[in-house]
Amino acid sequence: MNQVHTSQENAEIQAKVDKKNAAKAGSEEARERMAAMEAALNGAQAGELARIEQRRKEGEERMAAREKESERVRKLEARKKEEQRLLAAEMHRETMMKAAAAERANE
What we know:
Layout: H1 2-106
């Protein structure tokens, strides 16, 4: 009977040890799953940050291109305005010369 009792205690002890080992293995698996999920999350965040940075860069390039185009249009408009001013001055000068010539002809 003592031997049966000892076998039963050994079986109970072994069951406890097995239970602890199973809990440790489950805990280790849970840690590994958590680490894998964290790595996946970090990878997703890095990918999203890269996409955001790319969109920001593209936006800045578009803004720079628009600003360059606006500057080109402003210069073109300024040149046209200057040409119109010079043409008006030339026409005024010609009109004044004709008026002076007509006045001299009338004298």
